[in-house]
Structure formats: structure tokens, C-alpha cells
Amino acid sequence: MNTYKLILLTCSTLTLIACGGSGSNIDTSVTPTLAPTPVPTVEPTPEPGAIVGPYSTGTTAESHYVYFDLDTGEALTLTEEEAAASDDWDFSFKRTNVQLNGAATTPVVGYFTGNNAEFWGDDGLPVVDQFVAATAESELNDFTAVTAADIPADDQFSTDTEALIVGSEFYNYNYETHAVSAAETHYFIVQSDGNFSKIRAKSLTTAGYTIASLTLGVALQDVAAGDESFMAEVDVMVDTAACTNDIFIDAESQSVVTENDAWDIQLPCVTVAENTGADFEINIADDASAIRDFDNAYTGIPVASAAYYGFESNVKQVRFFDAHSWYAYNLQSGHQLWSQYGVYLIKTATATYKIQITSYYDAEGNSGNYSFRFAVL
What we know:
This protein has about 375 residues and is mostly beta strands. The protein has helices at about 5-20, 80-85, 130-135, 140-145, 320-325, and strands at about 50-55, 65-70, 75, 90-95, 95-100, 110, 160-165, 170-175, 180, 185-190, 195-205, 210-220, 235-240, 245-250, 255, 265, 270, 275-280, 285, 290-295, 315-320, 325-330, 335-340, 345, 350-360, 365-375. The protein folds into two domains: about 50-160 and about 320-375, no CATH class; about 165-305, no CATH class. A hairpin with a 7-residue loop joins strand 22 (about 325-330) and strand 23 (about 335-340). It is globular. Residues about 1-30 and about 40-45 have low confidence and may be disordered.
């Protein structure tokens, strides 16, 4: 017998057995390799002083709020109706308006540290060189210097509220004599039907707890006629002592009209303790907007930049950031906003944060794009 052939035969037989041939009882299953347990991705917390944004609030013609949750460091997608009933956001911004969530179960409140006071002169006007020279880098130290030790007592914080844009601001009340008089230096500029009107109360008389008569001064800026400033003031005298219905005034015609006419100003008629007259309140029409000009600073409104003047509807948002503005406007040509790099404390239901708004523009120079720093204290 050929020994070589015998060796081959033996090897072939062993190979068949090893491969699990017929009758084989060898387990050849393969144990799978387990994949590693995935590690959840955690968004990094911004480094101290890091800038987040820009967050776009749209254009002047089509603007929208960005709602920001400081606890998560995220911008939320909410409609204004959803935001009004939501505790999830802490502050929001749309164009030049910045607001706190004062309607939250625990209202969000704010406090201004008062840094960079030198950016404003004794006359209350911005010091141009200070604003222009400041940068996010040069003002970083102001931000990092604020610590938990700078958190004031609770009564030093304030929140956003609502008030009528004119409301009761057209008169003065003496708490000692209980006398009511016209606030002659409180001007209101109303934007309606494409025109602007500068309005104030010049005199009023009372009957008990109502207004018996009121004289308004109304100065019209007729944009369609090419007016760039307000014309001479015209007196509109209103007898409200025996009113039975609300009284309506058209600023363009500078006269009392009916509710069915085009009107801009409403005086509610009431009966209080048997006295009939106008209530101590002035409203503007739903399609009108207004600003307060208590310093009598405006001789006219430039149409091209009217959107930057902060015109508001009848119900005005009394915002913390309006009282402590983060910017100055139009220091140089181009209607630009310049940040004061103010450091604000915002207190939520869970923590107190510091915030510094660093820019209103994106890399291409488009406005309405907010960038800012924030950190928990």
C-alpha cells in the first residue's frame, strides 16, 4: 500500500469530521461580538465669556420673537400665543425689544448692575467715543467680574408688566389736595393711517370722579403731503360731562367723530357715583401705535426710520430692558445700534444668571441678529 495515499486518506477523513459532516455532534456556532453601549451626547456648556448666537429675529417687515431658556441654553420654537402660557423660556428678543417672562408661574425678574455708566454724559446723552471704541473683547472683564456676591436683595429686581401707552399718563394727580390737572408736558406721538400726530392734554375739568371737559392739543405730520415735521398744534375741545357713549377723535381731521368713522383716540364714557363723564383713561385705535415723548424731543418722525422709534400698540409692554436700555442708536450715520455692554442679572425660578448683549448684527451686517454672553451665578 502506498504510504503517501494512506496519509492523504486519513487527513481527508479528519477534515470531514472537523467540518461537521454527517453524524457530527460538534457545536460550530459563533458567539457574536457585542457593540459598545452608546454614550449620550451632551451639549457643552459655554466657556466663561463665550458668545452665543447670532439668533435671527427676522426683518423689520417680518419680525418674530426668539424665546431663550437659560437653564438649557437653548432657543425655543414657540408662537407668541404659546409663549404667553409657557414657563419654559426666560427672556426673548424681537428687533430692538427684549422682554422677560413676567407671566411665568414664577415671574422672571431683572437687575442692571450699572456698569459702563461713563458711556452716558451728565445730560443723559450717549458719549459717542465710549460706545464706538467698545468691543466684545474690551468689555469681557465687565462680564467676568460679576459674581454671586453681586446679586442684590429681591426687592431690587423688577419684571415686565403691561400698561396703556397713553392710559392715565395725560394728567397729574395731587395726593394731598386730590386735584387733577392736565400733564401738559406729556406728549404722545400716534402713528395711524400713514401719518403721525403729536398729542397732549392742555386742560381738563372734573365732575366728581369723572372728566367733565378735556382740551387736547393735536399737531399733525401729514406724510402724504410731504411733511417732515409736525404742523402747528390745534386745540380739540371735548365736552364729556353729559356723555352717554364713548367719545372718538380723529387726529388727521383734528375733530370729534363717531365710532363708525376713522378714529385714532377713544375716551371711555362712565357713570361714577351718579356723575357721568369720561373716565381717566385714553385709548388709541387697534390699528394705531404710539410712543411717549415726555421730553418733547421730536419735532417730526423720519418715515424711513420710524420702525426704530419703538411705536407700540394701545397696551404697552413696560419692559425692564426699556428702563435699562442695552444700546444707543444712530451715533454715526446708518441707523446703527451700539451696545453699552451692560451686564444684567436675570433671576428665574431656579437660578440667577448674568447676561451681556454683545451684538445686534450677524457677520454680514444684517440687523435683528442677537449675540450675547450668559452664565449662571
